[in-house]
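Example 150.
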Amino acid sequence: MLGWPFEQNIRTIPPENHSGYAFEVRRFFQITVSSIAVVIILLGAGYAYSHEAVYHVNLFQQYQQINRESFDAKLPYVSVSWADLSTQNTDGVTSFDDNDRPVSIELDRQHITSARDLRAVLRHQACHVSVGEKAAHGSAWQHCMDRFRD
Ligand SMILES: [Zn+2]
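Predicted structure in complex with zinc ion:
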């Protein structure tokens, strides 16, 4: 994709014209390198854009959407927020009070970079909310996750 218009230029140069050929080759590489740089910048911008976009999502609204779609809106209120969970090496945490009542869901900014990731992690945490802390990732939690299989 990157090279095709420039390769044609090179083929039209007479083989005895060495200095011109070298110039064209140099030019070809310069154009290719700058094209690659532009693509990298565009990919970076696209990545930054989607990364930004996922941060502007209303997290509680997303949680409530999953609650309505998959739990008949029976999940209790919990606060849902972004956090830095890098030291815990996880992309989401659900916290409970002393009576095993769910209190909050925290989501890791570094790990979650797309709407798809966000939904997957929120579904996982919604099942923790649903089955309680002691169930952990045991059979009750796994059974809860079954509802998300399409
Ligand atoms: Zn979990």
